[in-house]
Specification:
With about 120 residues, the chain is mostly beta strands. It contains 1 helix and 8 strands, in the order E-E-E-E-E-E-E-H-E.
Length: about 120
C-alpha cells in the first residue's frame, strides 16, 4: 500500500486524489486529471510547482530554455528558489525533457500581488 497526498495516476490510467480525512480515515476520490494545489489540472507546457513562500500561486514566469509557465502547484520538496516543471506522467515524459543546465533564469511576468 502506498500513502498518497495529492493526486497520483493508477496503473489503469485513472487519477486518484487525496480528499482529506474523515473520522480519522484518509479519503480518496477518482478525478479526471492530476489536480494541483491551486485546483487546476496539471498541464504539460503550463504547470510549474513552486514554494508559495517565494512565489505566489497564479504567478506567470518565463523560464530560459523552457518558456512561459504558471505557478499552479506546490510540493513538500519544493523549498526556496526551486521550481519543478510539470512534463506529464510516466518515465517517457520525464526522459523526453532535459535541460543542459539546471540553473535557469526565471523572470516574473505577472500574477497575484503579495503584500508581505
Amino acid at each position: 500500500m502506498a500513502l498518497l497526498e495529492g493526486t497520483g495516476q493508477a496503473a489503469d490510467g485513472s487519477f486518484i486524489h487525496y480528499n482529506g480525512k474523515k473520522k480519522g480515515a484518509s479519503c480518496y476520490e477518482i478525478v479526471s486529471c492530476s489536480i494541483t494545489a491551486s485546483g487546476a489540472c496539471a498541464q504539460t507546457g503550463t504547470t510549474i510547482a513552486v514554494d508559495p513562500d517565494v512565489m505566489v500561486l497564479g504567478s506567470t514566469v518565463n523560464i530560459t530554455g523552457v518558456g512561459v509557465r504558471t505557478a499552479q502547484d506546490t510540493g513538500g520538496k519544493i523549498n526556496g528558489e526551486h521550481i519543478d516543471v510539470y512534463v506529464g506522467a510516466g518515465k517517457a515524459a520525464i526522459n523526453g525533457f532535459a535541460l543542459s543546465n539546471t540553473n535557469q533564469t526565471v523572470r516574473l511576468i505577472g500574477g497575484p500581488a503579495s503584500c508581505e
